[in-house]
Amino acid sequence: MIDRLTAALQRSRADYTEIRVERTWSTAVGFRGRRLESATASEDQGGFVRALAAGGGWGVASFTSLDRLDAMVARAVELSRAVRVTPSIRLADVAPHQADAILDLDGDVRGVPIAEKKRLLEAYNGELLTVSDRVVDTVASYRDEVSEYWYVNSEGTALHELRPEVTLSGTAVARRDGTIEKGLESIGLRRGWNSVQDKAAGFRKAAERAVQLLDAPMVTGAAYPVILDPELAGVFIHEAFGHLSEADFVYENPQAREMMTLGRRFGKPALNVGDNGAAAGLRGTLPFDDEGTPTQDTPLIKEGILVGRLHSRETAATMGERATGNARAISFRHPPIVRMTNTYIANGRGSFDDLIRDVKLGVYACGAFGGQTLLENFSFTAAYGRMIRDGHLAELVKDVVLAGNLFQTLDRIDHIAGDFRWNQMGGGCGKGGQAPLPVTEGAPHVRIEEALVGGDVASRSR
Amino acid sequence: MIERLLELARRRADGGADALWRQVERTSVAFEWGRLKAAGVSEEAGANLRVRHRGRVGVAGTTAVGASPDDLVTRALASAELGEELALHLPAPAPVPSVATFFPPAADASLERLIAMGRSLLEQLEREGCRVNVTIERETAETRVANSAGAAGAYRSTAIGVSAEVWRIAGDDVLAIGDVFEGADLPSDAVLAALVGSVNARLEHALRVVAPPQGALPVVFTPPGLSALLLPVTQALSGKAVLQGISPLAARVGEQVFDSRFSLTDDPLRAGRAASRPLDDECVPSRTTCLVERGVVQRFIYDLETAARARAQSTGHGQRSIFGKPVPGYTNIVLGEEGSGMGEGSDALGGGLLHEVKDGLLVDELIGVGQGNVIGGAFSHPVALAYRVEGGAISGRVKDAAVAGNAYDLWKRVGGVGNDARWAGSRYTPSMLLDGVSVARR
To answer: CA of B272, closest CA in chain A: separation in Å?
Structure first.
């Protein structure tokens, strides 16, 4: 395949050309309640070409029929020429690499019969259903894939990889009269069959949580000291800060560039943030990004100060910085754009108890149903919360939605515990119509001095 | 292609089969931060096959279909072997309504034409201290569906998506205001001018920042702003949610659940809409479905499988992609009493509802819609773009505010219906005034 792609490259008349080809085998099993939704095996394949002619813009072509490879290379070059760009697009230097990498398949999922995958998920789904008769519905899914990946560019890079992935998720829906609550368990790994065994406890816990939330009051909307558990702290740093550190947002926007000037203080000295696409064994980890740049650990905030950002080759060249290996595409259907990999808040000191000891009234926000950011403003929904009263954990509360302004909130992080962990969740990140991209987030427990928690504001007495 | 696939499937599966084949070509141009940056094409073709064998149903999909139709049938049968028993009833041949889905001006528009359209938008939106992103995408598709009961359909379709976004960053104040056109045909100059007008009007009002109000207040939701209030209702009206026992509207057909000014229709026959089609992806002819009429719940949407399990009829809402099995999905959702509005109405922000508001909000975009326990109806979202309304007029943009409430409760008391009905994506709605929405500020 590499030879075929290299030959196609040589026929390109552009200054720069890259070709990606992917062939993906996947299986998916889904349960809804006691019923199997489907168990399917799929095959997806296709290619992607990106070309840059002298003085031209990006010419891009994607296709599912590999017979069309030469025609699509020609088309991409033609499109690049049709788009005149001044000043012309430049790419940061990256040394050419040739690599053949088979990631740890950890029990190759292609060797496991789909009936066995169904049995595994049926067992986990059963854990959700048997917790209580209040659990009226479940949504459980298992998905795996092995993707064979080829990448070549006209600067001499040639890569071949075999990439595994497996995700497992379960949602329990509990109901009493008109009240409906959910509990969620989600696991996502760049590994194989061996890594999704013995996961029943997490599913059981999710269902128990859904049932407990039926009796929990809605949190009273107000500004509180808030402690984020490592899972939610990870989502927070991804949503609220990570997206701003993607250089495609700032590189051609002078006002944004000014807002994100390196050296600016973003937080207290306790705060250290980074993105590490080379961290061992995580879902956002790969040896190279989709431009053939090696991945790396990129510090973003050091002791509260902005020190770095995430780049593609184009954004790095424009800003006179180095490519960081963050140009990623979810599949051959899409161009690589600047994305996160494994984003983290680095470890601090002390324990969870140290964080809540002097909190008179606060919220301990746990787990994540999701998050969204509109640059300076963000919102994320915790799976559940506990009130903190006089330095101790108190009652369970529901509908904990945290909303805020990035700059204010980052600056209000005043305590970071020493209990860091990576959250190996499923799902993924969405940007520019590309979702879900496999990413990981990691953090210890984090305290925000004050944050707005949405809830039943109308009943608040003031 | 699809005939051959069905023929192969029929030989090996004893309970019938149906299939979808779709070929899509897209052309796109992107203007990034004020300059033309990229042009792209994509070509994709694939097939999705469903078989019933020994009473069990299985599905399989592929984008490598030319190479291995036998392999696809084998995988579908393997899927059926594990599948549940299901009395899937494949529809017999039936007359299909006519709806225009293919518009030659859209299909034939050259790359230069698309670039010129983008450039014109860019020029009209550019202003001091702002940066503009514009993307234009044109899609032409060919869809074929058929089943072993003899039903079949084929149609070509076009779709155009235009999106424009103006970014203004002043210090740490980030403002992004955009609008989108989605349709089956090329937008007219008047439609593009309306898009520019809508962005500019919202930008002008946003330049002044004011403190948000607080409490249970009247709030006007613009057509794009209504997402958080409509999502729980559309989720609850899906036959699948009813079947699973999680729809709060399940046992309420025929009841007055909402304000009499709340009517909801799904209409796959709307001319010029990208989601319109003569038949669904399971060979069921399209028809207009009234979901809620004057506040009274009428019916739920079904695909073939959900209908079979619920002992109901498919409403023609089977949606299927190349991978995975068909699922029930909406086409064009129309909010309105008569459900027949077509043209663009008033272009004044708030649709004439603001004069009724002494102190409240106009909400255009919320952050985090779709997160959390949506079908339960409770929502709480920070505003992405909202304005304070004082004494019947907009006084400025509010930041750091959140709105909360329960969608089912709020739709019981509609305070007013705007005269500005328009399409926002595949949803046609006016602005709506709702009373007693919780507004919190920091």
So the answer is: 23
Give me the residue from A136, A333, A377 closest to B367, CB to CB.
A377
pLDDT at residue B342 greater than cutoff 50 = no
Q: Is the pLDDT of residue B173 over 90?
A: no
The answer to whether the Cβ–Cβ distance between A38 and B58 falls below 8 Å is: yes
Q: Give the minimum alpha-carbon distance from A17 to chain B in angstroms, rounded to a whole number.
A: 14
Q: Which fold has domain B2-206?
A: PmbA/TldD fold (3.30.2290)
| A311-338 confidence digits (pLDDT tens) | 999 999 999 999 999 999 999 999 999 9
Distance to chain B for A7, nearest Cα, Å: 22
> In terms of CA atoms, which chain A residue is nearest residue B128?
A255
Condensed to tens digits (0 to 9), the pLDDT of residues B302-323 reads 999 999 999 999 999 999 999 9
CA distance A136 to chain B (A): 7
Strands A413-416 and A401-405: what pairing? unpaired
Domain with CATH 3.30.2290.10 in chain B: 2-206
What residue ranges define each of the domains in chain A, with the CATH number in brackets? 2-213 (3.30.2290.10), 222-459 (no CATH)
Put simply, the answer to whether B174 touches A403 (Cβ < 8 Å) is: no
Interface test with A, best of B74, B82, B177, B398 (most A CBs within 10 A): B82
Partners of B369 on chain A (C-beta within 8 Å) are 372
Cβ pair B367:A379 closer than 8 A: yes
